[in-house]
Amino acid sequence: MLKRLRNLVSPPSAPARGTSGVSPLLRNDPPAVEQRAALLAGKNISYTLKRSSRRRSIGLRIDDRGLTVSVPLRASEKWLHSVLQDKAHWVVEKLDGWQTRNPVEMRWVDGETVSYLGELLTLRVTRGLFATPAHRRGGELWVFVVDDSETAHIEQAVLRWHQQEAQQLFVQRAAHFAALLGVAPRAVKLSAARTQWGCCTARGSVRLNIQLIELPLRLIDYVVVHELAHLREMNHSAAFWSVVKSVCPDYAKLRRELKAIALS
């Protein structure tokens, strides 16, 4: 499944059971979550360490909350240290990027712009006796509210419109690519995850982030294909990427493009 700013590192070969090289972490279950710090590329970096019995590799993620390192439940300290040092410059570079970023706060007022399928729609807010669903007119999105000074009502109206458009489009694209891949998802649902564009559950349900509706269709299709491919290969092996490539030949380019976009 997709994860923004993620690096996966496979485990090194484990020593034979019962040898003196076994880490203490392999003998006792450590805390599931803890706060740590490490010297990376000359900087003292604080990070959140998360352990899970479901993981088989070490993953690094950077977002507005900082660095999160996800590891297998009984990962050794030596392995963890090796991965952090190997990715030290990447971590520092990405953290610096987040700290210097100055996001523009959305103003929910008439004349602002709303992202939709890679385009910008001009937001048109008008007052009326009753609030009615938002709808698109060409390059404009019209929102009807009782009180246009209540920006929260405008925001909710746009969100509901995005949800409606996303659910309809995502189901259509999933049906299209499911037929090409020979798979049948149990359901296609919306997600509001802060760290994933999409996921496929073990039960066969596909969840797609509502924020995808703001992106160009080519990126939506890539995420849809990526998650549907997990219905054939529940991993990120060479076989998995071969499935993705069969209907999305330029997936590598799209993947890089998507990784450069931050979830909000």
| Cα gyration radius (Å) | 22 Å
Give the domain tally: 2
Please state the structural category. alpha/beta
Strand order of the main beta sheet, please? 1-4-5-3-2
User: Which CATH-level-2 architecture of the largest domain?
Assistant: 2-Layer Sandwich
Q: Which fold name is given in CATH as the topology of the largest domain?
A: Zincin-like
Which parts are unreliable, with pLDDT below 50 for 5 consecutive residues or more? 1-7, 14-26
Helix content: 25-40%
Strand content: 25-35%
Query: How many β-strand stretches?
Result: 12
- End-to-end Cα distance: 18 Å
Shape: globular
Describe this protein's structure.
- It contains 6 helices and 12 strands.
- The chain is α/β, with parallel strands linked by helices and 264 residues long.
- It is 33% helix and 27% strand.
- The chain folds into 2 domains: 7-100, no CATH class; 113-259, Zincin-like, CATH 3.30.2010.10.
- The strands form 3 sheets. It has a 5-stranded mixed sheet with strand order 1-4-5-3-2, covered by helices on one side. Strands 6-7-9-8 form a 4-stranded mixed sheet, covered by helices on one side.
- The model is unreliable at 1-7 and 14-26 (pLDDT under 50).
- It is globular.
